Amino acid sequence: MINRRRFLTITAAASLAAPTALAGPRRVWTGIALGARTSIRLDHPDAEAIAARAASEIARLEGIFSLFRADSALSRLNAGGRLDAPPPELLQCLTLAQAVHRVSGGAFDPTVQPLWALWAERASAGTRPTREELAAARRFGSWGDIQLDEAAIVMAPGMALTLNGIAQGFIGDRVATLLAADGLTDILIDTGEFVALGQMPGGGAWPVRLALGGEANLRHRALATSAPNGTVFDQDGLYGHILDPRTGQPAPHRWAGISITAPSAALADALSTGACLMVDKNEIDNLAAEFSASCVSAVSA
Fold this sequence. Notes:
single chain, globular, 13 strands, T-fold, 3-stranded antiparallel sheet, alpha+beta
């Protein structure tokens, strides 16, 4: 049974609704980005027009990153193994993914899509992949089998990518960039990962409450949380959606959830995903430190 991508619902803290938190008209726009609930919190007289521009940008980016749209750039790459003149946003996202893949020792690896599809197919039949099936799926290729440049993205036959561990954060970052280019600030963007463009209107960091306890205060910073069992393949919740590319198996039941703050939401998203395969908090902290990021919560399962 495939549930929502994350069971850790991260919500803005209740203090955001306090009358003294925002002066003047307060607006919260809500929508969907890559299947996740999305919201934008701002205090601006042109809030409706601003939200409309953000929604248009989200729709445009879904045309690049969605696995559920056959005409998206990512779907066309997966279907054909080659994408000529790829969108610059896809190249930027994959370049960041490449950096996190390298520093994480391969723990973060978007090439697990064939493994993910295999687990999902077997789960729908009430079984799980055999050792031989996992080995066959892993032989389709790994990150080293991708050629990546402005002319084309080329993959080995049978390979496919999933950007579920980075694209939602990337979309949040792009919305923030769009709004910042208009001179806007003091906005909280939530695309499944958080981006604080500035601080709260009226001053102070944006408080974001973590579902497993604790709070992160964001100012010019992003936050992402990943949970190995945030989505599960089976009704008993034994096999989670974050797969180890080195074994083809779901991440061990070591962490209930890991939250990371970073300069960008795409980076925080990728780091928190890869960190779910880390052995201990020190390993997670070392990974985060390589990217000027910080693990603000690592809750054991």
